[in-house]
Input
Amino acid sequence: MLVVMRRDALPEQIKAVTRAIDEMGYTARPIPGGQRTAIGVVGNRRGVDPGGLPALAGVLEVIPVTHPYKQVSREWKADDTIVNIGAGVAFGGPHVPLIAGPCSVEGESEILEIAHMVRAAGAHALRGGAFKPRTSPYSFQGHGERGLEMLARAREETGLPVVTEAVDPDGVNLVAQYADVVQIGARNMQNYPVLRRAGRCGKPVLLKRGLSATIEEFLLAAEYVLAEGNSDVILCERGVRSFDPYTRNVFDLTAVPVVKGLSHLPIIADPSHGTGLRDKVPPMARAAVAAGADGLIVEVHQTPNRALSDGAQSIYPEQLEAMMAGMAAIAESIGRRLGSV
Ligand code: PEP
Ligand code: MN
Output
């Protein structure tokens, strides 16, 4: 439930509503907005009887939140949330930024070289995994903290904000010390200790859709992060498991407008994991922009056939610039702009 205060509500009136909610045995979460303050009610298992709340001074209306996720929902917050990750890169506003880089941080010279290349091509942030959740225990698992140090160095040299994955709760805090955005991958979308830790890590979180997660499960996963007090969450559609083995996943671009209707959080798209096929990445990147994605994350590698992970879906740096030109034209046609602020 959400208690919407009148525009001219006094601070004492807001305090009185908060107290009344506490006395009902629930927790009040004031949400200051540009236009008005709303007070969310959390801690209830079932629907809340609003009791005397609608009659309190300063209350405009009491809205039941009909979804199992609350703080993530549009009912809770009507305006789009804009997540700033630094260096003028913001997701959820008029600009559509592109995060680019290799699947894995393979070594210092490799990450520095590709960071400069994606920057030269126009990318707005750098990706690269230091902790890799691999399907096989025998595959390259990432360089761990050394990889984070290499990413920090790449940021220093290029000025690009860094997005990188954490795979366990302690890793979340470690990654947050180095990165600008803590990525939670598809395999950990429902790892609740990781989600809770991300909610307290003090950095924006990039949450990828689970391998076979419904949209409701995806939004409930984000709710874990918001419930811990962190509303800087960027959702990411990266394809879901299906019956057709032709592409790695079925890239569910419908999720973009659906999530934007249900939630105020920004949603970006990952056509690399979504398709698994290099030559399908540029057309699906354009399609993602057309569908209203608030950004993209794309794997790029200088020598994809020698990549330690996900080479088949990594585009060549030379492809990046042309792909971005196509995306920019699409963005413009729908009143947005590829880029940072
Ligand atoms: C990745 O970004 O390299 C990754 C492992 O993605 P996902 O979690 O979507 O599979
Ligand atoms: Mn990958």
